[in-house]
User: Fold these one by one.
Assistant:
Number 1:
Amino acid sequence: MDIGQIPKNLWENSGFNRLGLAGGWQSLVMIIIALFFLWLGIKKKFEPLLLVGIAFGMLLTNLPAGDSDMIFHPEWWTGDAAVANGVDYLNVLQHGGLLDILYIGVKTGVYPCLIFIGVGAMTDFGPMLSRPSSMVLGAAAQGGIYLVLILAVATGMFTGGEASSISIIAGADGPTAIFLTKTLAPHLLAPIAVAAYSYMALIPLLQPPFMKLLTTKKERMTVMTSTRKVSKKEKIIFPILVTIIVSLLLPSVAPLLGSLMFGNLLKECGVTERLSDTAQNALMNIVTLFLGISVGATAIGTTFLTTKTLLIVVLGLSGFILATVCGLLIGKLLYVISKGKINPLIGSAGVSAVPMAARVSNTVGLQYNKGNYLLMHAMGPNVAGVIGSAVAAGFLLAVFG
Amino acid sequence: MGMTLLSGIFASDAKISVVDSLLLAVIGIAIVFVVLIALMLIVTLVGKAFDGSEKLREQHPEWDEKISSVKSKMCFWKKEKKEEPEVIEPQPLASGACGELKLINTEERDAAMIMAIVADSTGVPLNELRFKSIKKAEDEEK
């Protein structure tokens, strides 16, 4: 036995050696990007609950290792064999690494749905039910999704499925973006998820300039009167009605919207407090943890560091801005129709990033009128936006799925 | 129906033309509006129905008795386990007049908090205390 061979083998099998091989520089760049995202999440608090997980998954998956030591095998999920014959789940369970196993929840669409149960349990649809017209604002902001779809197709670089997945970033709804992308463009999951969550964290910086640009001072100062009180029964009936109507119309979105409404029903029905509490806290936290780390794992240097990723970042940013503009313009229209009773600032909250976008409407409103609290009024379009982006995703799934 | 017509036209891995994307965008946003406006109308109707029934119940308090008697007749399966209603002895009210409380520049919520704090710190039950008015002291600049 040649003792001298041991250190040589150790070196050849080490990740340090692999960094110098083909694709090594890409892994190094991805490690730096992962560290940057960790800094953003921890130091700057940009969506830390997800970004820290995504960044750590990114870090783990880009540390070079031999085939038998790999914790994630992207080719099993998006390789030619997987595209042609479907994913070999038996192989994944028998030989997969930790992140392969966790990724099953993303690939099957289970995580986004479980997260939506938690989101539903945390959402109060009361403000929307008390002012049903706010649903129009939630619909208007989805205009951003379709405008980005046209832009993405116009670049000539994306297929229909890829363009649809990119466009859903404008919906400002992470679980919906993941749900759509895992079906239509799984190879773009990492850049789309990272872009969606990063821009959601940047909403307080992205939206206000456009809110001020597109509205007059008089409009921004509009004080909205309180609306009718919503009864408990109405809050219980609503999730059941939405599930039936939307699922009949768009069956493809039933898992996502059904989960959202199920979570909300747990909260409102008053007899499942323990389940509602679990959905809001334990379940949400566990799934967020799994989702973040497994989505991050898909950000492999060779597929992430491409021109397409850069374009996705630019298109995603455009989408957020266009969605804000669409919401504001319809907000202005409602201001005119209601004879100055609806503050157009609540239109920007239709982009569905709950409750961040509603908070931004409130903050901008307060800057111009110190007693004007728009938060509850903005929550209407905000939660309507969640339904709107799910409907938009359902439509795209039905067309391209 | 629209979904059935559209599905299968485009494969997710095929490129589509800008004209097709424009058409999709128009149909897509129309569907989002149709779904949300339909929900808006339904929610409005349900809300009106609830408000209307509340108003009717306020106008006709005698209906409550009729409704409860009908309900009791309908719930025939509950007859078997008829239980004597628990008799709750009415608690004697605290002696002392209630009167009216005047709030000056004070929110009802703040007033309720102040009264609860006074009752707690003095050890006297709230229904034995009498508040005539609560006025918010203006901040003086020093």
Number 2:
Amino acid sequence: MNAIILTAIWGVVMMYVGVFVHRRKARVYMAIAGILLLLITNWLELVGLTLFPIDSKGMLEPGNFGLLFNEVTFFSTLIYFLLSGHDFEDVGGNTSDYFALIFFVLCGISIVTAFKTLLMLFLGIEIISIPLYILAGSDKRNLKSNEAALKYFLMGAFSTGLMLMGITLLYGSSGTFQVDGLNMGLGKLPPMIAIGLVLMMISMAFKVSAAPFHFWTPDVYDGAPTVFTSFMATVVKAGAFFAFLRLFDQAFGKMQDEWRMLLAIITAATLLIGNITAVFQQSVKRMMAYSSIAQAGFMLLAVFALNQTGKQGLLLYATAYSLATIGVFAVLTRMKDYTFEGFTGLSRQQPLVAFSLTVCLLSLAGIPLTAGFFAKYYMLLATLRTGHMIGLVILAVLCAAISVYYYFRVVQAMYFREGTAGSTSRFSDGFKAVLLANSLILILLGIHPDWLLRLFNY
Amino acid sequence: MFTAFDNFPALLIWLPLIGGLVAFMLKDGTKVRSWALFSSIITLAVMALSLHYTGNEHVELQTVSYYWLKDLGSSFALSLDGLSRMLCLLTAISFPIIITATWKNPISNANAYYGLLLLTQCGLMGVFMATDMLVFYFFWELALVPVYFLASQWGGERRIQAAFKFFIYTFLGSLLMLVGIIFVYLRTPEQSFSMASFFHAQLTSGEQGWLFWLFFIAFAIKMPVFPFHTWQPDAYDQTSPAVTMVLSGVMVKMGVFAVLRWLLPMFPEAVKHVDKLVIGLSVTGMVYASIIATRQDNLKKLVAYSSIAHIGLMCATLFAQSNIGTQGVMIQMFNHGINIIGMWIVVDQIEQQTGVRKISELGGIAWRAPVLTILLVIIALANVALPLTNAFVGEFLMFSGLYGFSPIYAAVAGLSIILSAVYTLNMIKNVFYGETNVLTANMVEAGLQVRVMLAIIVVLIFMMGVFPGPMFDLLKQGTETLFLKTTVK
């Protein structure tokens, strides 16, 4: 509850900061202060201190897992602000508005990590989406950015419509919005519930950009300003995944046998389409867009498995994926040339940046000693634990092997190819320090994921 | 966690790791070389010291086990038994030899080069000593990543593609193995990754059947066994000399070792069903590689294909599953490592001096560099397993084992021995004897450090060829425990 209230308050504060604070850097510091405050207060709630005791009539109830997820989300956002906060001004003059919108997104995420009724889920998803439509189009003079915003809005509205229809059907059949009330389990599914469930699955698949509902993703991620793509592809996606998992765990967990096959097909399609299409990209930004689809395929395995290992794994995966992708995008934002050739020679000019970027890419590829390995490991473990669909696991590892191809192209450009195209970019010392710290976190989690997962026992 | 330094396995991991990290920090090329040599010699010294404490009373010096991931049931467990001792010894001996023999080669970014080389050593040691499956997997990959960087950054023109092919192949193999590991892990009695519980996992014979392939493909790619070998000639051809030596001398042993250490005890029933198939593949690969080697004009590729043939024999013998053959494989892993490193050193010398690696363009080197030639001839003869050399001991035992399994396979495999004599002697004739030409006219004797290293290798070859007793003593403990495990199941 702390997080929901404070994100909303801080969003408003950031809007006023735009009026009263004119130094650009001070605005960034205000945003960082806000996120630190969120980290602390959310932690306080985790250990049992609620600052705003509000009776939500059973509509919101984060639970430890939700709070822990918030914590991870806020931490990723902190790293994001530290790395990319100063790049906001390259997009346009309204930096504090952008920060405000991001805090509103975080508010939405805090709601979807706590929802107990379908209404709250809907509200949370909308609060996440609407600021993002604006952020995607924030580069007003750029046609691609406008296109991205419009596309995102139309597709988003469409999937929201589907979700509302699904909610209606579920309500009509069961007479309740409470997710617990839907989870009635065994027996034959009434058709209305079945259709509602499928509609909910489709709309959630839209939000997490799972195939075949992923078509908006590459264009939107490519068209939106790179700094905001970074946020959309990481924190927001992780939040949406949490909502997906929570909804299907709490509302449809006992009917799992009915929808498992459908989700397996979606997962397999996402893995294949994401990975194979990413291979053919020429622009790193677009490659990262497809890679985010591919990674979504892996995260879907947690929803598929729906067990404790899967939940732990999703938390780890969200952390590993968010931190690594934020790192890659932070460097990408500062590159002049977004093609693979644009990275040539970076290792000679900027050894530290190249090293950190390599760690991020290795983590995304799932090489041991990085957090990405254990993230993937937990997903595979969770899926194998269900005892179903060993073929899906084999498919997933084959796709992971494909992913090495496109992630390593960046590494090859940085280290092994001759050229100086990567040398034009400037990196401040603070930026390098945070980037390095980020990759050290990835390595530490790759040696000892327990340090994060042990928090589950709180 | 991981803090105790008072036992050998921990030291053998930490020394190369710290050595490698320090090497990254150094700037000056010569300093880095000296540091890398110093670090690898210290590792060798520790390894040699550990051979004095092999008895059961020193067991706490030979094993390490810390909690690592308690919730998953994995602990950081390493141990030095007979088998791992042999391969750790190979790793420890080969690195100082490799570093010294390639001392004069021009290397850009020497700090990264030697740093990565030492990190590879760390990974290799870990693979050979791990007694926990997850730790094993970790080191398995850990050895791969630095080698990928080494192979892509230094070497021939097509090195990036060759290294990438190598990486994708092996990574795909390891991922499939990971699926297998998780599956077996879920069937272990106490949900743990320890070796003992992996050997006692509850698996039906049907499950063993397909799990076997998940693991075997990973190991077969690494060895490499026909038909998973296609990365190897390219990789050897394109990597820089020291990396080629590490790859062929030590790294390919990871696959053979893993079959012996993990695969055979884990899936005894599956092995019974597929042994003919695997031996058939290996033997086919041996003959196939030998035939290609006889027609090979590229010196480096010739050695690469001869290596495929040798490894094929090891793999075939392993699946024949006889005590005597297995001992032969263990001895031969060490011998093959030493011999092939010697071969590469000579090939590297020729290439450094003449700039070519085509057999047809070389000739008459013996008149220019007699010492080098004599040393090479001895090493090459060891490579074709002439009596009195080390490889004879190993190959003799291996053939005995294979013959016991099936005389037909042994006979076909024997073909490759004949072929190996053909291509090796042909190579010696064409490269070292005959007319001196423009390219080889200016050949001079190899540098002193190279000759000393080759001499050490030759001494090792004869020592183990004439008096292999100590090697068997070293192994004894290893094979006995191994066969105990296999038969207990």
